[in-house]
Amino acid sequence: MRIRTLVLALALTVFAGGCSTIRGWIASDAEKARGPAELTEIQASATVEQVWSINLGDEQQRMGLRQQVAIEGDKVFVFDDEGEVMAVDANTGKPVWRTLAAERRSDGSAWKFWRKRIADGGITGGPGVGGGLVVVGGRNGEVVALDAGTGAERWRAKVTSEVISAPLVAGDRVVVRSNDGRTFGLDSADGARRWVYDRGIPALSTRGNAAPVSDGQRVYLGYEDGNVVALRLGDGSVAWIQRVAAPEGRSDLDRMADVDGELALGYSELYATSVGGQTMAIVMATGQPLWSRDTGTYGGLALLADRLMLADPDGTIWALDRSSGSALWRHDVLARRWLSSPAVHGDYVVFGDVEGYLHWISPEDGRVVARERLDRAPIRGTPQVSTTTGLLFAISGEGKLSAYRLR
């Protein structure tokens, strides 16, 4: 049996829980030095305000999910603990519709202070949106497509394993990555299976799959073995495979090279980063590398006009030249804070952290220009920004979803 240890999810849980326990009060100096860096007072040069907030339930953190919203027009799409998909008005947070897509069933003891719940079913991947569809994936391999306007079910399909990343809706295909290494191309009209790509996965990997991305001709996938795979969207045939990071070392832990964070598409190039410590720019048409750098992350990248930004596993924020990969600057002001993938919001880049803070960073020099606390739980999913409303949306591990305006 293939063992998939939830390394990063467990680490985040430990960090989050330790903040509020007695052990945290009496931690040694050495333990404190290994914990998240203390936040220092900032000279805020940007003004951020919370517009609205809703609660989706606290199962996000327990299941090791990295849910982020999907946005289309003036609607935000999310799912909650009970398996309901919701369309929410982006400006007000008011529900537009809600549909039960994959019911979560649980059983537990009646003890008041010691309650063990065994959950089955429910939504674990998505949502993905496009072409009038909202698509989610379930713990038991369900794939459910809903009408984006009304929430009515359009079709339902099945894949071979749990879906923990957002399905991609691209033209007449819905591309779904399952947790056993298989990727499925489904017909967007009725969910019929059109192709399957099967790739083996290592014995040990992180909890998370990079969501598929597409340029309209090919779909790009990051894999646990350190490779990026390009498949032709129509038939799923392999266009090219490029290794970003090579698994190296004696132990399975040393050899982890997952390309787990979001892939970023440029004009003609794709950017990928690995938990093994490498970041690469790749020509989308051929798969040939433009440059590679020994700086990587478990998260994804933010792409700006002349640079890309990421946070390495130590929490150091890097700005890399987009054309060469050379470092423009680095900053460790948020060291060891288990930063999320970044998002571009106005003139700034935003990271979430393990203590529930959002940090707005200047891409010019790494200064923290604004800070807001969403929750006291980690922010694992990438914050998302609406091009229609200009709002930023983020979800905590305890299921708090908030919208922020940058003034």
List keywords for this structure.
single chain, 407 residues, mainly beta, 4-stranded antiparallel sheet, 4 helices, 6% helix, disordered N terminus
Structure commentary:
With about 400 residues, this protein is mainly beta. Helices cover about 5% and strands about 40% of the residues. The chain has helices spanning about 5-20, 20-25, 30-35, 60; strands spanning about 50-55, 70, 75-80, 85-90, 95-100, 105-110, 115-120, 125-130, 135-140, 140-145, 155-160, 170, 175, 180-185, 195-200, 215, 220, 225-230, 240-245, 265, 270-275, 280-285, 290-295, 300-305, 305-310, 315-320, 325-330, 345, 350, 355-360, 370-375, 385, 390-395, 400-405. A four-stranded antiparallel sheet has the order 1-34-33-32, with no helix packed on it. The protein has a four-stranded antiparallel sheet with strand order 2-3-4-5, with no helix packed on it. The protein has a four-stranded antiparallel sheet with strand order 8-9-10-11, with no helix packed on it. It is globular, with a radius of gyration of 20 Å. The chain starts with 6 loop residues before the first helix and ends with a strand. Mean pLDDT is about 85; it is low at about 1-25 and about 110-120.
